[in-house]
Queue: 2 jobs
Job 1
Amino acid sequence: MKSGFVSVVGRTNAGKSTLVNSLIGEKIAIVSNKPQTTRYRIMGVLNEKECQIVFTDTPGIHKAKTRLGDYMNAQAADAMADTDVVLLVIEPVANVGHAEQKLIASLKTMGIPAILVINKIDTIPKEKILEIIQMYAKEFDFDAIIPISARKRDGIPVLKEEIQKYMQEGPMFFPEDMVTDSPIRQRMAEIIREKLLWSLEKEVPHGIAIEISQLKETSNLLVIHAIIYCEKASHKGIVIGKNGELLKKIGTASRQEIEKLMEKKVHLDLWVKIKEGWRDNNTLLRNFGFSEH
Ligand SMILES: Nc1nc2c(ncn2[C@@H]2O[C@H](COP(=O)(O)OP(=O)(O)OP(=O)(O)O)[C@@H](O)[C@H]2O)c(=O)[nH]1
Ligand SMILES: [Mg+2]
């Protein structure tokens, strides 16, 4: 039996969560076209024959403007310690950005094996891939460089095979039927936040937090009350939408996905409330679960 830990790091929006979902074969982390989608570390467990691989999806490295942003960047940095191999996920561009330079500097000091994963190769011509490989090979002696498309699942088997090389003789750390460490309430809240991320623009989605305030289960129905917190009164109106239409759309899409996850009929009630400036308020951040303790 082999096992080990793999952390998935990179700049925001590089496709880390899409990749972890592809590797696990199940959606455990939400994905969106907006930056700063993932806010905390999420563990995903992959059981292969005689091998258990434990992935950690992390918030993307970005220029933090709030305390929440600082917390998110720190989560990514911390995740790199004590892993068997790091996957540095990059966008297919031939310049090494600030986020990548920072992560490469950490890899150099930590001395952990690292695989460079060039994602989104479906968006560039093949010739460009070599250019990117050469550029990064000059920066750091990666143990492997693998081009993939997480969205199209292109290159995933090759990447899995490479990762297995870093797994060591050891126990199964988690039961076979466990795919993630995310509590069910958190998964539900994240599903709702994902729908909001896709529907909202500019600063509004970044100031959203979700609380599952009530969860009642009967034999054939799951009743969920969720509160959508936003940062400003003007944002509340945007979230609700004209005649409540946006909120209704978010509610329907979230309910359908939660029904699939829970394999049960769901009744979902959404409320919208304001928590002014919560992303810079330590107490509110702690209340929303953004703290180590
Ligand atoms: N074309 C293309 N798009 C991709 C690919 N992988 C991810 N994306 C898109 O890139 C965007 C960001 O994906 P995420 O998986 O949320 O990125 P992330 O790195 O987890 O982002 P953060 O959580 O903000 O750090 C989404 O719109 C994805 O659909 C890919 O292989 N090809
Ligand atoms: Mg993510």
Job 2
Amino acid sequence: MADPKGFLTTPRETPKSRPVALRLLDYREVYEGFASDKLQKQAGRCMDCGIPFCHQGCPLGNLIPEWNTLVWREDWRDAAERLHATNNFPEFTGTLCPAPCETACVLGINDDPVTIKRVEISIIDRAFDEGWVVPQPPAAQTGKKVAVVGSGPSGLAAAQQLTRAGHQVVVFERADKIGGLLRYGIPEFKMEKHRLDRRLDQMRAEGTEFRTGVNVGVDITAEQLRTEYDAVVLAGGATAWRDLPIAGREFDGIHQAMEFLPPANRVAAGELDVSPINAEGLDVVVIGGGDTGADCVGTSHRQGAKSVTQLEIMPKPPESRSAAHPWPTYPMIYRVSSAHEEGGERLYSVNTQEFVADSAGRVRALKLVEVKLSDGKFVPVEGTERELPAQLVLLAMGFVGPQREGLLEALDVELDPRGNVARDKAFKTSLDNVFVAGDMGRGQSLIVWAIAEGRSAAAGVDAYLTGRDLLPAPIAPTDRPLT
Ligand SMILES: Cc1cc2nc3c(=O)[nH]c(=O)nc-3n(C[C@H](O)[C@H](O)[C@H](O)COP(=O)(O)OP(=O)(O)OC[C@H]3O[C@@H](n4cnc5c(N)ncnc54)[C@H](O)[C@@H]3O)c2cc1C
Ligand code: SF4
């Protein structure tokens, strides 16, 4: 156990964020550093519970009490080793995860939970700084070839596990750079891309090969891939976005979030001078109250938007757990992300009826109406219709599943009732040597689930290719997200 009295004597403390006025001037991560003595005290709050519910909350089964104790004892190197025992990329989860482990923490029943995520990122940052994160090439090669399609967190986790198990792994990515949503979806202010690049350096040194600019199903046929490789892992994500087919959708100035965020990320990365979709000086309305919407809010502010409003059809969630979401579940509560701290307005229980354009066919406003839930349906509240000015509208209403045209159609792989790629317990699809991991099989989810799926699919591939039971499989394909 860490400090036996830590949870009684030390209140929860997290690092301060950089002042809003300052951080809006750049795309750097918003949090300031945290002194290691402070972090040690935070780790010391862990009670090393007999039944650590934090494990249950984490899809990766992270060994949280173990690394809390090691940090408390200042044994950072062993803490880093225990961290990597279950998670290939703690720097991704340590910056981006909504931390279902913290909402499951036993201390959270009657006090503030342990700041697990902060401990995680501090361990991995220290490990990179100290040079403890080194390539781990395999001791021997199996002679088997594996193709991974897609380089998001699930594809990368699968690739790293399989390379280390001795297979020759090639990752195919249709974008010009590796990383999936980590690269061109998620903004720098949530995770700076050098974290991704240094991990890719490690993977290259271990022997993983990356081929960018290859759209599998177009540039190389699915059949070619199946013949040339002993196994294929589909990790293409859930990229088919949900649209809003209402009157005026065709007006200029209305874009999907994933049309807006990638060029903004390219500007932040110095690959582009100005984004073709720019919020500067505009009233921006973001439709959709989730994380993707929040990323649009933060990016719009950095581009110099005149005003930013985020719309959500659901009612405003409660400030604390309701009876419907008891501990240790991940509760639906009102959350203020770093992007929301930076300004803008959030409107709940509103629906967009139509878009209004100026004479040039460019959007100038939305017609809104308040709604209430009646018999499970949203019904308009009479007399609440109004116009909300908007010269840029961003649709952030989630994703309906993987893109079917191209690769999946060519493979003619079986889909599940939700339209995702169906798989068995070993993450194998309906096709003999084809496996699936991440959002492509699970549907839109989280980084932590993508990494867990990549690890589990790798275990399935390795067993398929060699008949051995070597790699860990943290989850079953049917495990549901806690979020
Ligand atoms: C804007 C945004 C912000 C998010 N923020 C968070 C967050 O803060 N925290 C969190 O936990 N989750 C977040 N998520 C969700 C998270 O990013 C995803 O759940 C996760 O990235 C899924 O990983 P993946 O590997 O399955 O797929 P992806 O990351 O989507 O990667 C799939 C890759 O496959 C490639 N690809 C697809 N088809 C082909 C093909 N035929 N040939 C070659 N390449 C192909 C794509 O180009 C893409 O690079 C966010 C999602 C979005 C959209
Ligand atoms: S549930 Fe919380 S207090 Fe208990 S072991 Fe996990 S992190 Fe520590």
